[in-house]
Design a protein that fits this description.
The protein has 1 helix and 24 strands. The strands form 6 sheets. A 5-stranded mixed sheet has the order 1-21-20-19-18, with no helix packed on it. The chain has a 4-stranded antiparallel sheet with strand order 2-3-4-5, with no helix packed on it. The protein has one domain: TolB, C-terminal domain (Neuraminidase, 6 Propeller), CATH 2.120.10.
């Protein structure tokens, strides 16, 4: 499979202090993304005009009320953001799922992961949000948890199901090192697609029967030879064409696959090695990246790490049809 070479693509947007840009999504003409390591939510008010950038810090100081986890003496993180509208969003944070007011920058936890009876408090204290998704009906969120930055990565990571109306958490999928993007099937809500980054695969998982089927193997499918750690990271499903676009960490690539067969359809090479997440907007693919030295206090060694790129006309239409539709992420339904 040939690779469409966008290695000279100019930067679409770059916060020069960025470390680990991730969790990118579209709400009409507005762009949302996060910096996991710096615990920030970013928005761009107009994608086409590339204007109106705002940044919101998720810290105890910006918490609306008394911050409930001061005893842990550790910093917050933000794994993924779920736009509600242009003035508010939900997001996966260090200890639970929060909601932010984009007018004031104040935020609050809606639910914390210690409320899940399947997690011991000791285990809960070591985990953070990584990635997740909203159900097609908007009433549920699947949230992947992994060990926080200060801990070794182990398989005590998991995926929790959040029932928004009941404000309740249950275990959905247990024992996974790095759960990345999660997607519901477009036709069968019992089926989800789970990105298992450190096993280099995406699983097709039937939650009702608990059957797990290999969909994509990023090492053994032959497309990532020569890369030591081609981890599937953030992704987006185009349900109109049944194509999944996957950012493949350390490879400088976004790969497009048929969601039904797992067959590789196209590859796109971008300027940065650490492709971290992607979304679709109109006919383009917007890609986030990470710095090569995330934990270093400055970005001198990698001055463009964490930048966003916009691949023009990257959207694939296997049938040739180009429907006109809104690419907004499913909006959570709050009471």
């Amino acid at each position: 499979m040939s690779v469409a070479d966008y290695s000279q693509l100019p930067i679409f947007y770059h916060d020069k202090t960025a470390k680990l840009s991730e969790g990118v999504s579209v709400y009409h003409d507005m762009l949302f993304w996060v910096d996991i390591f710096k615990a920030e939510i970013h928005t761009l008010d107009n994608i086409d005009k590339v204007e109106g950038h705002r940044m919101f810090k998720i810290t105890p100081e910006t918490y609306d009320g008394e911050y409930p986890f001061t005893k842990f003496n550790c910093k917050e993180s933000v794994g993924v953001v779920f736009p509600i509208d242009k003035t508010s969003a939900m997001f996966g944070s260090r200890f639970g799922i929060g909601k932010i007011d984009l007018n004031t920058g104040k935020w609050k936890y809606l639910v914390t992961y210690d409320q899940c009876k399947d997690l011991t408090y000791d285990r809960f204290s070591r985990l953070r949000s990584n990635d997740g998704n909203v159900s097609p009906c908007g009433k549920f969120i699947l949230m992947g948890l992994m060990n926080s930055f200060e801990f070794q990565v182990t398989d005590e990571g998991c995926i929790l199901l959040y029932d928004i109306e009941k404000n309740a958490l249950t275990m959905f999928y247990d024992h996974i090192k790095i759960p990345n993007s999660i997607h519901w099937d477009g036709k069968n809500n019992d089926i989800v697609y789970i990105t298992d980054s450190l096993n280099f695969v995406i699983w097709k998982y039937n939650h009702k029967t608990q059957e797990k089927q290999l969909l994509i193997d990023f090492i053994n499918n032959g497309s990532n030879k020569g890369f030591a750690s081609p981890e599937p990271d953030g992704s987006i499903v185009d349900y109109h064409t049944n194509v999944i676009y996957v950012s493949v960490w350390s490879t400088s690539k976004v790969q497009a696959y048929d969601l039904e067969t797992g067959n590789l359809l196209q590859q796109f090479k971008i300027p940065q090695a650490r492709a971290s997440c992607c979304c679709i907007y109109k006919e383009d693919i917007i890609v986030t990246t990470a710095n090569l030295n995330i934990e270093h206090p400055t970005n001198q060694a990698d001055p463009i790490g964490g930048a966003l790129y916009r691949i023009p006309n990257g959207r694939i239409h296997p049938t040739g049809d180009k429907p006109n539709h809104d690419d907004s992420k499913v909006v959570p339904v709050l009471n």
